[in-house]
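Model it.
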Amino acid sequence: MMTDDIPLTHEDIAEIAEILEKSGYRELDLSTRRFRLRVAKGVDAQGGVTQEWQWAGSGPEVSTEASAAVVDPNAICSPLPGTFYHAPQPGAPPFVQPGDEVGPETVIGIVETMKLMNPVHAGRSGTIAAIVVANGTLVAKGEALVRLT
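Modeled.
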């Protein structure tokens, strides 16, 4: 279904998933000029609700921005779409800053998706060269968050 470009918050998406879970429908597919959101229930091993984002213009392929990040071997990319946060809570110091040494298990930030806070680990050792994404920014899966040297 095509609608005018309406902004959705994570609370809106959680409410949509809850409504879908209680309904007789199996899935919902919502498209706007900016994104496409597909929510389906009973498709994972636990029979819960899953969601899938696709940014407008990305088609079945990964978006151009995400593709550039994948090619950069120094980029630590978002494992899922959502809102990227530099710190565990407002006012707290950031997980990492440029110049910090990190290891594979170091948390470099959090991606919030559907009210779930998902830690993002560096995945390898290195030194933080730059934080690419501003705090509180919506990111796509595969988008570069941090660059290492």
